[in-house]
Amino acid sequence: MILAANLKCNHTRASFERYCEILNANLGDEILSKHEILVFPPSVALNLGNHKFIQGAQNFYPCQNGSFTGEIGKEMLGEFDISCVLIGHSERREILGESDELIARKFEFAKSQGWKIVFCIGENEAVYKEGKTKDFLASQLEKIDLDYQNLVIAYEPIWAIGTGNTATSAIIDEILSFLRTKTKAPLLYGGSVNLKNIAEISQIPSCDGVLVGTASWEAENFINLIKEAK
Ligand code: PGA
C-alpha cells in the first residue's frame, strides 16, 4: 500500500526533524517491504536528511524560479531532492482559489520533470447529496494525463476531510472502482482515515492506499496507523 501523510500547515523545521527521526527509527524492513510511505511537510520544514520514506512537497509553482512572490519553484525543491508533489488538494482549490487551469499547468510541469504526482480529487457535500459524484470526479480528471506512469490519484470527498465522517467502505469501493475504469494509476482514499478505520479501509480491494491528514500529524500516531494497515 501507499500510506501518505499530509501534514498541512503543521510542524516547524525543528518539530519535523523530530518527526523524521521517529519515522526513520520505526520504519523497518517488514513495513517497507509491504508499503511505500510518503510524507508531505510544510515547505519551510523540508528536511535534508536521509529518510526511509519519500519526502514530498505540498505545493509548488510550475517554474524553475522567477518573479512569483511567495511561491516555490523547482530550484528550491531540488535542494531537498523533492521529486514527489501533491496537486489539486481541496484546501488549495477551495481556500487558496487554485483553478483547474493552474492545476493543469502544475500537472504538466511536474510530469515534464518526471515527478511522482499525488493528484487529489473529491466532491463537496452538495454534489454528493445530488448523486453527481462520478460526473464531478470525471470532470476533475479531464485536463490531466491519466496514463502518466508516475501518477497516483487520491479520492478525498471534501465532506470527509477533517470531519471524522469517513466515507463508508461501500462508497470508497464504488468510487475507486469507477476511477479504475479510467486509469491504471494507484488509487488512494483520503478523508478522516484514522487508527480505528485503517484496517477496514486498507482491505477494500480497489484501494491501493490512503492519504492521511489529522491522524498523521503526530509521528507516533502515523506509525501506529501504518502498522494497522493490511
Ligand atoms: P484528514 O485530511 O485525514 O484530516 O481528513 C485528509 C486530507 O486532507 O488529505
Shape: globular
- The overall number of domains is 1
The strand order across the widest sheet is 3-2-1-8-7-6-5-4
- What is the CATH superfamily classification? Aldolase class I
From the helix content, strand content and strand pairing, which structural class follows?
A: alpha/beta
CATH topology: TIM Barrel
Number of strands: 8
Oligomerization status of the protein chains: single chain
Overall mean pLDDT? 97
Roughly what fraction of the amino acids lie in strands?
15-25%
Bound molecules: 2-phosphoglycolic acid
The profile of the biggest β sheet is:
8 strands, parallel
The N- to C-terminal Cα distance equals: 8 Å
> Uncertain segments of ≥5 residues (pLDDT<50)?
none
> Could you give the order of the helices and strands?
EHHEEHEHHEHHEHEHEH
Helix tally equals 10
* Known CATH architecture: Alpha-Beta Barrel
